[in-house]
Amino acid sequence: MHKPLKLLFATGLAFGLAAVAGSAATDPEDVQPAPPSIGADVPVTYFGPQPSSVQRELIGEYQNLKSGRVDKDKGTITLPLYDGVMRSGETVWYIVTDTDDPGNAEQLGLNYSPKLTYSDIGRAVRRATLGAKFKLTFEAGKVDFKPQRSAIPGDAPNYFPPKQFQPGSVGDKDYSPLVKITNAGGHIYNAPMIAFNVSAEKLNQFCEGNPDYSVVHDKVLKICPREKTVTLALTTGFSFSRPVLYLSTDTNNPLTATAEAATYAPGLEDIQGAGDDSLFSPVERIFVFVNGPTGKDNPQRQGLNSALSDGASPLNILGGIPTVATDYSPLWDLNAAVWTQAAIDKGYRSRMTEEFAILGMVQRGFLTGLNGKPFGSSGLIVNCPIVFRFL
């Protein structure tokens, strides 16, 4: 087990994103809008196509990551499964979600993120070469999927921070999900590893589900090399008040890895946060509430206390996503938000869904960072490719 979070608070390195207790899967009903037929005397089939089907920037459902098949009701995506090899010989199983190559993003249905170009600092981007049979050979970066993900929540009503925690997959010092293909254009791809040094025959046992989490990523629900597919659990949240689904795969801290059912990726420690939309910044902001309203049946519920107590999504708020803004990056700089006692006493604590409303509360003194510190970057980076927006 890793040391308790209260010790990490002293170094400014601690908070998480999603429920540790219970399933890694999400509940899209937390955010999915009601059908337009509610309150009308006509069936839902009466209503015409959403404006987004004509122009993606308009209101309506839109799938950002088009390379996979989304199940909105289950909150999952089925993506192409790729296999490569380490220079040392081990098999690497991975997915691809984002790239800074606009042409390939359009062709393959990936998310286009120009900001990834500025992530190539230190260990943050691994190197790979393209070889025969379209396979990548990775120079460095391995993941151990054997650890069992676990956490002991804090005492009620302050379930966060957890008393102890252990991420379910841990990368070595060189592991990052970001990869530069050095002999094929030099573009950067977001290619999270989801299994390592395990045979296709072993993984084919999980084509119908019930995977062995000692050999695969904790977000995996089904994996099937013979069909070249993998199904992963998504997380619900918001971006500029639009409900969204995103995929959390990696983070640069053991606690957030535990909370997100993600891989601890030490290579991401070299990503610089706090820049947001500044020149050469590779990140965008994500806002995480610590002490939001609790209660699974509470329509205002949000935050880490709630997630640790009821197992549902903390309903984080993302900054720019494709089709809504031009500054999207799958690398999110975590900004922790804590409601002050004054805000709670005045009845201002409620579910927040939009970045600038949050910043307004910060400006008025109703939200702070952890332990009363100024609101802003935590230094924690999470790799969360956007998948789908509901509006």
Give a structural overview:
The protein is α+β, with helices and mostly antiparallel strands and 391 residues long. 11% of the residues lie in helices and 28% in strands. The protein has 7 helices and 28 strands. The strands form 4 sheets. Strands 1, 10, 13, 19, 20, 21, 22, 23, 24, 25, 26, 27 and 28 form a 13-stranded mixed β-sheet that branches. It is globular, with a radius of gyration of 20 Å. 48% of the residues are buried.
Give me some keywords for this one.
alpha+beta; 13-stranded mixed β-sheet; globular; single chain; nine-stranded mixed β-sheet; 11% helix; 391 residues; disordered N terminus
Domain unit count: 1
Tell me what portion of residues adopts beta-strand conformation: 25-35%
- Classification by helices and strands: alpha+beta
Q: What is the β-strand count?
A: 28
Q: What is the 3D form? A: globular
In the predicted model, the low-confidence regions spanning at least 5 consecutive residues are 1-24
The DSSP helix count reads: 7
Instruction: Let me know the largest β-sheet.
Output: 13 strands, mixed
Distance between the termini: 41 Å
Mean pLDDT: 91
